[in-house]
Amino acid sequence: MNRFLIILSVLYRFLKLEKSKRYTSIIYIQFLLSYYITYEVVLFITSKDQIMARILFMTVGTGIGVNKEEKIKSLAHGLLVCIEHHRPDNVVFFGSDQSMDTIESVKEQYYERHQEEFTDYEFVEIKNVDNFDDCFYILTKKLEEYQQEEVIIDYTSGTKTMTISAAIGSILYHRTLSSILGKRGEKGIVIPNTEKITEQNLYSFYDKLILKKVKELFNNYRFGAAEKVLEEIVIQETEQQENYKALIKAYDLWDKFRHQEAFTELKKVTKIYGENKAFLGKLLQTSEEKRELYYIADLLNNTERRIEEEKYDDATARSYRVIELIAQYRLRDKYQLISSDIKIKRLKELGLKNQDIEQYKSPEGANKKISLQDNYKLLKALKDELGEMSIKDKEMKNLLQIRNNSILAHGLQPVGKDDAIDFFNTAKLYAEEVSTEKVDLEELRKIALFPKLE
Predict the structure, then answer these.
(1) Is the entire prediction scored with pTM above 0.90?
(2) What are the residue ranges spanned by the domains of the chain?
(3) How high is the mean pLDDT of the chain?
């Protein structure tokens, strides 16, 4: 940038010169501009090469057996053809101490063909070339050193263990694989100058592994982790990837009770999740004060998911809310009473005695908000079957005490698996009491179940 400013300064002075002096200055300015353009081009090319240096990894065999020298020479010739094809900035050879004979042959043949020494290489010794852990550890450790470079892995020669390690390394680190093919002669040795370089990548296989992991995370309700792992996919079609992204986001939002946002995302998913879309659509179309049955069904499913995850305190908190919401629904639907705003006038209209009404008056004489247990006491006073059921339910009282002592309520005790399941079953039992012919809660639960990806 400073060089550019200098040239602008020269141009400015040029314009201020007398016409008689401008000709000589034009030649000087042309020189400056040529220098600037040439310098910037060279700088760009140099910096680009530095950023994307090409490194060739090569597993190297030993050519053991009959005709060893001839095999080594043939093997080295194939490696050299690969080196000349890829033209790397550096070669990293992997092999045993015996592989050095092959590398020396590569160097000799390189000198014969190019009349210069082959020096841009590194040899990494593997002590046990038949041990997968050794081969894989050494190769991947080296791959870690070349995160920013273009790395090509040639796995033509070497032990089977070495080549398997190279192939797996290419999958995990998204590197291109290269191999050398050629026509073999009578002794099984590749005939010189028949070599052919083939390149392949295993990204599609890698993507399948990643997608399998994404599905596992999704099916275990780990939506945030699933979304992050999905980003590791290499070559999957953008449309398909966006489809999975929308799917994960939709159910993540739904799991957090953000129904409107979840419905918006789910509509983007091309695969039809008709029942789930129908559930959310009906929930959102129902007026807010009449959504209780949909929320009860959704909360029961959410509770069951938390139990699957072994999050028993979370499950218990949801079961408690279900039981509370059931009472709130019954009071509103059957008696036109809102538990957060109990109107004394309405209680009188329903025929409650004055001594029963007194407890629902706030000190200031305003309408009163009542708790879960007060909801059921009010239902009992109204001679409702739910109220009668709760008063006689000793297990419910015990479960409420466990919930109150839990760390997510008023105490410090964790909730155990058995208690969480008992609370959930009790919530389902109470839900059956408000299930109607118009709205079957079990059917609602079925169409609100999260899918399992296969």
Answers:
(1) no
(2) 2-51, 54-201, 287-447
(3) 85
Q: Is the pLDDT of residue 7 over 60?
A: no
For the stretch 237-294, pLDDT in tens is 677 889 999 999 999 999 999 999 999 999 999 877 889 999 999 999 998 878 999 9
Query: Domain 54-201 class?
Result: alpha beta
Contact 451, 286 (CB under 8 A): no
